[in-house]
Write a structure and sequence with these properties.
Layout (H helix, E strand, L loop, with lengths): L7 E2 L2 H10 L2 E6 L6 E6 L1 E3 L2 E7 L11 E13 L5 H5 L6 E16 L2 H15 L14 H8 L2 E16 L6 H14 L4 H12 L1
Helix pairs in contact: 5-6
């Protein structure tokens, strides 16, 4: 990943925060003699990524493969009209702000049903937490759940290293950065509010 120094994020706690806040990631592997990308939700458990795939997925047969897992946080277009320095010098251009974490590691496949059930219960509890009546794995018929367990394989990725890039206008003076935050909040599209929050944290 291209990594200018002022955008490099090396704080593990900040990178873990991104991975937990945006758990739907892209897994890139050379599982079938060519680059293959899959998109999966992950749980970060004791510094290890855990998830599951369909048994027919190439990752299910990729035990031991080196993988790259990409977590993408909030992102958005930044207009040069938001910079006070545009009125002063005109020496500004459009850009895109974003926060990403690239996780490098080795994949391990898991077929243990108890492990899979524990993972699915954690995922369900987390993502059902906003529902008025959260759904639970036990809400489905036992024979149906048992059949589904036979159709999936657990995956665990031991993390070798993490590259973080938080491109949040750190290369601009504070007045420009504050104006971008204001511009994002006023535009209020897609990820704008979250991106403004991340930019605010990068200043404080």
């Amino acid at each position: 990943m291209y990594q200018p120094g002022h955008f490099a994020e090396t704080r593990i706690d900040a990178l873990h925060e991104l991975m937990r806040a945006y758990p739907f990631a892209t897994v890139v592997a050379n599982a079938t003699n060519c680059l293959d990308a899959n998109h999966l939700p992950f749980e970060l458990v004791d510094g290890v990524l855990q998830g599951h795939v369909a048994r027919g997925n190439a990752l299910a047969a990729a035990n031991g493969a080196k993988v790259l897992v990409i977590f993408q946080g909030p992102h958005g277009y930044v207009s040069p009209n938001w910079y006070p320095s545009k009125r002063e010098t005109g020496r500004v251009v459009p850009t895109w702000n974003y926060a990403v974490a690239h996780v490098h590691g080795r994949l391990r496949t898991i077929q243990d049903e108890l492990w899979l059930r524990a993972l699915l219960e954690r995922l369900t509890i987390r993502h059902e937490s906003t529902q008025p009546v959260p759904w639970r794995v036990d809400d489905a018929p036992a024979d149906y759940v048992q059949k589904l367990f036979g159709a999936i394989v657990g995956i665990e990725i031991a993390i070798d290293r993490i590259e973080g890039k938080f491109k949040l206008s750190q290369n601009h003076p504070l007045t420009n950065r504050m104006s971008v935050i204001e511009g994002l909040r006023e535009r209020a599209m897609d990820n704008d509010a979250r991106l403004a929050e991340w930019m605010t944290k990068s200043i404080s």
